[in-house]
Structure formats: C-alpha cells, structure tokens
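cron nightly-structures :: item 1 of 1
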Amino acid sequence: MAVHDDCKLKFLELKAKRTHRFIVFKIEEKQKQVIVEKLGEPTESYEDFTKCLPADECRYAVYDFDFLTAENVPKSRIFFIAWSPDTSRIRSKMIYASSKDRFKRELDGIQVELQATDPTEMGLDVFRNGKLGISELCHKTFISLNDDKPVANAASGMAVHDDCKLKFQELKAKRTHRFIVFKIEEKQKQVIVEKLGEPTESYEDFTKCLPADECRYAVYDFDFLTAENVPKSRIFFIAWSPDTSRIRSKMIYASSKDRFKRELDGIQVELQATDPTEMGLDVFKSRAN
C-alpha cells in the first residue's frame, strides 16, 4: 500500500511545528494509497476529532495529546489510532489491519498506539485518565511506551518459534519439504509449524491442509517450466484468510503477516487468498513466471 507524500509532510508539521491538533488518514482502495482526509486546527478539541471518524468506516489517525504529569509538568504525546468500527466492511478491516505497520513506519515519532472498534475504547478518559500514569495507560491498552521512541503494537510483536525458521531453511536449501503450514497460537502469542509436506506430496495434498474456516500462513515450493522449457522453482508465501474465519483471527493474522514474513528469508512470491479460487494452481503458474 503506497503512502502519499502529504501524509508524511503533514505528520512532520504536527510533530515539529504543532500546526495541527490531529490528522485523519484514509486508504483509497482503488489507488491503493493512504491519503490525508482531514486536518485539525491546533485549537480544535478532542470532540472535534472524534466527529471526523466515520461510524461505519475504518481510518487511521494521529492526535497530539496535551496532559499534565503527576508533578504538574505539561507534556504531550503523539497518539496513533487504528479506528476499525464493528460496523465497517470486513474487507476494509483486513486492508487497514494488514497495511497498518507499513504505514506507521512512515510516521517517525509515534509514541502511543490505540486500537479501537468503538468510541469507548478511545475515549478521552483512556487518553487522560487521571489515576493512570502514561506507562500504566499504555499497559492498559496493551501498548508499551518508551518515553522517547516509537512503539510496536502487540500484534507486530507476535513471537515466531525457532522451528518455523528451521523448517523453512530446510525447504529452501535442502528441499526436504514440499510445503509448510503455520498456525498462530493465540494464547502463547506465537507462530508455530502445524504441518510439513513431504517432497512427493502434491498441490492437492497441500490445499487439504488448509482449514475451510480458519486462517493460516503457508509456504509452498512450486516447480514449473519456463517458456523456454527450463525447469525452475519459486517459493510462494500464502496468507490464507477464508471468509468464514473469525474476524478477530483475520485481524491477528493480517497485522502479524509482515513481521512473520521477515523471518523467512527467501520468499519469492506472495498470495493472499480468501477462497480456493484465489490460490488455484493456475494462479501459481501465472505468478511464477
């Protein structure tokens, strides 16, 4: 997902010059680009900000929040808000969730992150609860705060079991597996290997290992012939997110994908599929060349 230069420019103005109280960002799906939708004047209030977030559509936003410490010292924090109301489209939720970490990296200076599905999860009391210090506030909202540096969210911090990297290296270097299916263990907050495919197993064997109503990651070592009849192979990464899977599961898998992929050095092609037709053998063949 591309990021329009104006997003970075306006964020720098907010951070360095405090010329904006808040910025609301929107993903233009047709252009596959994040753009600035709304700028808040420095005099505008938190209520003005919340009115700019649509009740049934996802958005990103940043908010420059002023507060007093326990020692009565005035400070400010730049909040990043991932707004994903329950009534928004599932496709929109997935696009915003999967693009969030990439977009945040373009905004150097985010200090606190909030993820909200309804107004109560990002109320002014959450921002400034008088009984909470900043570090406690961040703990309550599942975000850890470093006083001076940007923070990573809980999803992007999903652990990866060493076996995932080991088995991927075996597939890549030794070709001892045809495919690997990975699963997120939500309780342990960890990606694990769920299934290994023998080198002799087929594409059909692989697809049978993907549950019809649960998300998974997978890699597949695909052999093919070029137009010049030269045998080659490509390692495909598949983000499997069927329409019938739980929304929470879709969000977790989407927001953890890029972090997990970085652990698998050697991915050559990526496919995102919500039903079998989006990752059929014909799709593999067309993407391999």
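cron nightly-structures :: done
The chain has a mean pLDDT of 85.
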